[in-house]
From TrEMBL:
Signal peptide: none annotated. GO terms for biological process: DNA transposition. This is Transposase. GO terms for molecular function: DNA binding; transposase activity. It comes from Clostridium aceticum. Residues 1-67 form the Transposase IS200-like domain.
Length: 176
């Protein structure tokens, strides 16, 4: 995944947005210093969704592990350079895998077998599907806004009442 990464984290005392702000902030400082650059590094803020049920936890885990294969980056899950899949099946042990394996079976050996079988099942998992946004020019954006909001000039937008302006913004976000 050249332009993003997937994390499955269990929130504890510190809220997830605080954790991510700290991680991203530290990484940006390190990266900018190392490569002699300044400014933003990430295109967008992180995206998240709650995982509250064990079944969905396993679905998300499978989605994450299979994503490089689905994207054509790796032939097999374990071939992907940045996977921790091998931690779960016992070849390495750097990940806290107890929660995931205990969902499947209390016996570790059986749980690992079930885990391998589950992760490798054909599926059509969809997790936090992000709608791809398309890049448009400023000129095109201005024309879209003028057409949608039925104004002649961009400055005419200032004359629109707040409620109508908010409705237009919501509609534009949904469509573009």
């Amino acid at each position: 995944m050249g332009n993003h990464l997937h994390l499955l984290l269990m929130e504890d005392k510190e809220p997830l947005d605080t954790v991510m702000r700290r991680i991203c902030g530290s990484y940006v400082l390190w990266y900018n210093k190392k490569y002699g650059r300044v400014g933003n590094l990430f295109q967008d803020r992180f995206k998240s969704e709650p995982v509250e049920e064990d079944e969905y936890f396993l679905t998300v885990l499978r989605y994450i592990f299979r994503n490089p294969v689905k994207a054509g980056i790796a032939a097999k899950i374990e071939d992907y350079l940045w996977t921790n899949y091998t931690d779960y099946i016992g070849e390495k042990n750097q990940t806290d895998r107890d929660y995931a394996l205990d969902i499947l079976n209390g016996d570790r050996e059986k749980a690992v077998r079930k885990f391998i079988e589950y992760i490798n099942q054909d599926n059509d998992d969809k997790c936090l599907e992000i709608k791809e946004s398309r890049q448009i020019t400023d000129h095109d954006a201005i024309n879209i806004i003028k057409d949608h909001c039925k104004v002649g000039q961009g400055s005419d937008l200032q004359m629109i009442d707040v409620d109508r302006k908010n409705r237009y913004l919501k509609e534009l976000k949904e469509h573009f």
